[in-house]
Amino acid sequence: MIKAHTDVVGSLLRPVELLQARKDREAGRITPSEFKSVEDAAVDAAVRLQEDAGIDVITDGEMRRLSFQSALTDAVDGFGDVPLDAFLWGEWHSDVLGEMDIARPPDLGVRAKLKRRRHLAAEDFTYLRSRAKRIAKVTLTSPSLYANLWSKERSSEVYPTLDDFLTDVVEIYRSEVEELVRLGCTYIQLDAPHYPLLIEPKWRAFYEARGWSVDRWLSHGIDLDNAVMAGHDDVTFSMHMCRGNQVSRWLVSGDYEPIARQIFTKIHAQRLLLEYDDERSGSFEPLRHVPDDKMAILGLVTTKTPRRETVDELAVRITEAARHMDLERLGLSPQCGFATSIIGNAITVDDEIAKLTTIAHTAQKVWG
Prior knowledge:
Elements: H1 16-26, H2 32-53, E1 57-58, H3 70-75, E2 76-77, H4 85-88, E3 90-92, E4 100-102, E5 115-116, H5 122-131, E6 135-136, E7 138-141, H6 152-155, H7 162-182, E8 187-191, H8 194-197, H9 201-209, H10 214-229, E9 236-241, H11 257-266, E10 271-275, E11 295-301, H12 311-321, E12 330-334, H13 349-367
Parallel strand pairs: 1-6, 7-8, 8-9, 9-10, 10-11, 11-12
Antiparallel strand pairs: 2-5, 3-4
């Protein structure tokens, strides 16, 4: 198991050059080769930023993705049109920026049997591996999060049930993990924000309308995640759980306690990346459920606001968390990505650098 005390969740702010190049490619103003060069440059900058900050784990910043969820829909046929709002919809909250309500696109629903055109992240990892001098991590998405893209009305002819659909998603993911491992990847993360969403009544009702009870969402969702991770003892897997992060807003509040025992003990991921950047996340008490063979990486540093956390305040909070589990099995990270879609949060690159650097300095103070 990778025992690094610092980590990142995945995404970094996209540079303006990359955002413009994405528009130019869609409009046919630049060639695929020209666009790929801009993407590569953005990844190079992301790697340098993280390594210069002193973080142990490096991602490609998800520079090549529309959203943290889009690796599957970009690489696999059968989904039909999946616009950005397919990954953004919901009632988003902010005490500073105000509410943001994005409607779920009405035509969402897988339309044909899934057929992979290319690997989801293998090419991304190969490039990242050639650039990163530290631990290179690949981020994927928990399979059951894609329940959002199955519809009884639109999908039942090809996938009569949600289980049928997610079975194929898992098989695609298992194949992807096999390829990543073959290429030398030793650290893979699954992002699963839907688990904490089950705490909130409105989101719980949405997920139950997909066809599963809340108990099944937890138990079978964990089974699907474990199926993706199965058979790779030399790979470290992490599970990231948060309460929504988009345009500096959040979806739900709630303590981990109602779901902690089941998820923390039964998920086969060795590292649990947990949002803990404000009071919405509840207390550290659920950490008592983390088994002795797992690490809990505390997302104490917010990606939602420019507020600069200090080494001293973070060290105090880590000490508080250590009352509930061994200090050596704790780590520190941002609470989520800085740009879970191409839109990004309302912060600057300087804020991003400062926060990552503070994480590295705090780890040095706490763990040496």
